[in-house]
């Protein structure tokens, strides 16, 4: 493209224009639990969204994006892209304010505790008599409710539960989209101005370790008496 | 002979600066022909400057290129005085509403923001020819001036009802140098950079390099380019 660059001037050049290209709004909620927050009555969560455009004719590098509402002709959002991949251009993930998400506790069942006694590790044998390990597996059922605050249906809202060593996924009443440990994914349709929910159970592995100190021998007790002045 | 080849192509890099192509027809006479190139910014990289003789016969060859940047310390002293003079003009001006207002402001602004990259460097081409002829002489140099850069911007109009959008891409080109590139073919190259370019630009440490007197001029911009990602247009 030919242009004139004048000294101390900025030039804005038209680069490309595409009309009537299809776009999708992708929404996702990523969440994980630990042994403490699984018992919490309510957890407020927020979704993220991005726009995805296909058939973009030019390779777009990392740029700023100004999004307008075509009908109103007014700016709607200001975003960024990390650049296009092939003909696919997506904006960076932003917080979705039009989807309200509540994560509520349905039930919490404590499992039976098992007690194991083990010898102390070699480097602690001087001090410890034994190590007591108490293990329990609790089951928690939680329900995530998504409320659509718009007049349009929200399709394929993805819920990503990420498992960890303490909290593992157990079961769900809602059909899973994909189970790829450590991720469990649901895809949910949220009707316009309506709600949708997902209920699932988790297993929580709780382990407590107690160090049982060794009783001092008679010789040690006698020595202690000598050291401590009466 | 002094010549001023016009910029025909300018590939501007994402981190600032770029590669300039300038071309002019020159008349050669048998023997040594010396051409002093005018309007070469001091920000040109003398280490990577090249000359090409377009479609030249074998009887013509480039003997040597004399390339030199002016001394930054001395230029900075001159510019310091010019900036003080510009400030004095504004301070002493009783009324700047006359016909020359725009012109005065332009001169003062140019002087105020003038930096080392805005002065001219020295680029001389020495050609040996066995015949009398006219050829196209093309010079190329990297411009280590971070004040010339580009930034893309995309405007998207969404129609939520139809699920269709209109995408418009723009490129904002910033030329904060004192040089003009008239009707020049522009290209925009995106590079991965080894490190972000500081606000002071590529030639921040040039004074130290030049004052050492025993250091061969080094390229600053080119060595910062890690890998080219794409050329936009």
What is the topology?
The complex is a heterodimer of chains A (230) and B (233).
Chain A: E1 2-5, E2 9-31, E3 42-53, E4 63-69, E5 74-81, E6 89-90, E7 94-109, E8 114-118, E9 128-148, E10 154-162, E11 167-172, E12 178-180, E13 183-190, E14 195-213, H1 218-227
Parallel strand pairs in A: 2-10
Antiparallel strand pairs in A: 2-3, 3-6, 3-7, 4-5, 7-9, 8-9, 9-14, 10-13, 11-14, 12-13
Chain B: E1 2-3, E2 6-13, E3 18-28, E4 31-37, E5 50-54, E6 60-68, H1 72-92, H2 101-113, E7 122-129, E8 133-143, E9 148-159, E10 164-175, E11 181-193, H3 206-212, E12 225-231
Parallel strand pairs in B: 1-4, 2-11
Antiparallel strand pairs in B: 2-3, 3-8, 4-7, 5-8, 6-7, 9-10, 11-12
Helix pairs in contact in B: 1-2
Description:
The complex is a heterodimer of chains A (230) and B (233). By secondary structure, chain A is mostly beta strands. Chain A has a domain of 154 residues. The longest helix of chain A is centred in the C-terminal third of the chain and has 10 residues. Chain B has 233 residues and is an alpha+beta fold. Chain B has two domains: 155 residues, no CATH class; 42 residues. Helix content of chain B is 18%, strand content 45%. Chain B is built from three helices and twelve strands. Chain B has a six-stranded mixed β-sheet with strand order 5-8-3-2-11-12, with no helix packed on it. Chain B has a four-stranded mixed β-sheet with strand order 1-4-7-6, with no helix packed on it. Chain B has a two-stranded antiparallel ribbon with strand order 9-10. Strand 4 of chain A pairs parallel with strand 9 of chain B, so a sheet runs across the interface.
């Amino acid at each position: 493209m030919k242009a004139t660059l004048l000294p101390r001037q900025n030039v804005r050049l038209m680069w490309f224009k595409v009309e009537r290209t299809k776009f999708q709004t992708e929404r996702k909620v990523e969440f994980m639990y630990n042994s403490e927050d699984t018992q919490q009555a309510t957890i407020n969560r927020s979704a993220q969204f991005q726009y995805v455009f296909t058939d973009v004719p030019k390779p777009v590098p990392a740029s700023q994006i100004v999004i307008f509402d075509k009908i109103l002709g007014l700016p709607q959002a200001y975003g960024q892209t990390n650049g296009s991949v092939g003909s696919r251009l997506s904006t960076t993930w932003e917080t979705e304010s039009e989807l309200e998400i509540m994560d509520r506790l349905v039930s919490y069942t404590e499992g039976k505790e098992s007690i194991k006694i083990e010898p102390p590790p070699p480097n602690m044998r001087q001090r410890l008599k034994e190590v007591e390990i108490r293990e329990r597996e609790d089951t928690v059922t939680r329900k995530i409710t998504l409320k659509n605050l718009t007049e349009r249906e929200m399709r394929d809202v993805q819920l990503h539960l990420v498992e960890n060593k303490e909290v593992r996924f157990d079961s769900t009443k809602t059909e899973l989209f994909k189970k790829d440990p450590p991720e469990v994914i649901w895809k949910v349709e949220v009707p316009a101005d309506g709600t949708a929910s997902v209920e699932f159970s988790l297993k929580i592995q709780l382990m407590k370790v107690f160090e049982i100190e060794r009783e001092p021998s008679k010789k040690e007790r006698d020595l202690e008496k000598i050291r401590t002045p009466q | 002979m002094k010549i001023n080849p016009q910029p025909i192509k300018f590939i501007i890099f994402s981190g600032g600066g770029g590669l300039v192509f300038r071309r002019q027809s020159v008349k050669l006479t048998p023997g040594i022909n010396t051409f002093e190139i005018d309007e070469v910014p001091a920000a040109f990289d003398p280490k990577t400057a090249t000359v090409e003789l377009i479609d030249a016969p074998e009887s013509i060859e480039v003997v040597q290129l004399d390339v030199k940047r002016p001394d930054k310390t001395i230029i900075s002293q001159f510019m310091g005085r010019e900036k003080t003079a510009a400030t004095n003009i504004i301070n002493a001006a009783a009324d700047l509403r006359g016909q020359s207002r725009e012109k005065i402001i332009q001169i003062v602004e140019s002087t105020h923001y003038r930096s080392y990259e805005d002065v001219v460097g020295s680029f001389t081409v020495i050609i040996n020819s066995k015949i009398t002829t006219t050829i196209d002489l093309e010079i190329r140099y990297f411009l280590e001036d971070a004040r010339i850069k580009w930034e893309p911007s995309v405007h998207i109009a969404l129609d939520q009802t139809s699920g269709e959008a209109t995408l418009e891409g723009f490129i904002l080109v910033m030329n904060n140098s004192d040089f003009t590139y008239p009707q020049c073919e522009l290209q925009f190259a995106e590079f991965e950079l080894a490190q972000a370019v500081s606000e002071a630009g590529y030639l921040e440490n040039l004074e130290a390099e030049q004052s050492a007197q025993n250091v061969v001029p080094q390229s600053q911009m080119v060595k910062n380019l890690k890998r080219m990602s794409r050329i936009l247009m």
